Amino acid sequence: MYIEDISILNFKNLKDVQVTFSPRLNCLIGNNGAGKTNLMDAVYYLSFCKSFFNAVDQLNISHNESFFMLSGNYLRSDSQETISCGLQKGQKKQFKRNSKVYKKLMEHIGLLPLVMITPSDTSLILGGSDERRKFMDGVISQYNQNYLDDLLKYNRALLQRNNLLKQFAADRYFDDELLSVWDEQLIDYGTRIHTERKEFVQKLVPVFQQYYTFISQGNEKVGLIHQSDLYEKNLNVLLKESLPKDRIAQYTTAGIHKDELVFNIDDYPIKKLGSQGQKKTYLVALKLAQYEFIKEISGMRPILLLDDIFDKLDRHRVEQIMKVVSGDEFGQIFITDTNREHLDAIIRKMDADFRIFNVHAGNIEPLK
């Protein structure tokens, strides 16, 4: 599967852009702030109905404009797909597949599998546990729409339960039967979410470790551990045992919304002891494992976006990464860099169909 071309209007600093891509390798060269990452984000948006970087959709509209539009043509499983999106200020965004409007955006997730590796991935290591839960949820949701539905319903029930706990505290009143309505929903959805997360991590870890070992050439040992209260007790028991604490705290203190992914290197937290190069290698290996996982589940090779990934990596690790992605198991790849020499070296190693684009002040032009 790959994107053949894209049309962009008023998306960030990309005012009016039409680009035709190579089905294999696309290199974007330009200074920082030129718009390379914004083009990547437009491709990402068409897969996930949202920006990788801006949670607020309105922030993706170009300055002094009232709307943005994106449209991409794809070849997917030997059939043509046209995906388009439009957002007008003050209105809801609209997504279309082959000119037909989606009733629910979640119906689109997973249609166009994609993995993006970017410098902002450091938040997975340096940020809070919610960042790592989002990583798990984002990957699983690409191939399991029931999981996404359960997650949305779990979060709604969690919000209602927390509101009820606050109301009980304010009114100095408690109704166990009323609370149990939300407990039942949390148990139902949360138990299924835990099972999916558990299976996902079990399958991901060996692939991730294999990629890290290859990129680092066996110099370090890494670990990835899923921590959850549900490994010790079922959610029904946890909610009952934590109720006194919940009433004092006025929010739900146990459940899958407290899950954590622990990132280790040589049995120590990589957040505290890993070098910049080791952290970057860890993240790249993690995302490549994500790619492999989604490819196996979906039966399609996802689009791979590599945004400025070579910074803080030594030459040997860069070479190892390029050996990995140059293989036939990978499909369409986008790479950004400020250094043309880096891209030329990559092109020589991959020996694949490619296109190079110069990006300057929001304008994108193919180079010969």
Structure notes:
The two termini are 25 Å apart. The strands form three sheets. Strands 2-1-4-5-6-7 form a six-stranded antiparallel β-sheet, covered by helices on one side. Strands 8-12-13-3-14-15 form a six-stranded mixed β-sheet, sandwiched between helices. Helix 3 packs across helix 4 and helix 4 crosses helix 5. The protein folds into two domains: 178 residues, Rossmann fold, CATH 3.40.50; 178 residues, Glutathione S-transferase Yfyf (Class Pi), Chain A, domain 2. The protein contains ten helices and 15 strands. The mean pLDDT is 92. It has 368 residues and is of the alpha/beta class.
Short description:
By secondary structure, this protein is α/β, with parallel strands linked by helices. It has helices at 36-48, 123-126, 129-143, 145-171, 176-216, 235-249, 270-273, 276-298, 315-325, 340-350, and strands spanning 2-11, 14-20, 25-29, 67-76, 79-88, 94-97, 100-101, 114-117, 222-227, 260-265, 268-269, 303-307, 333-337, 354-360, 363-367. The chain has two domains: 1-113 and 304-368, 3-Layer(aba) Sandwich (Rossmann fold); 122-299, RecF/RecN/SMC, N-terminal domain (Glutathione S-transferase Yfyf (Class Pi), Chain A, domain 2).
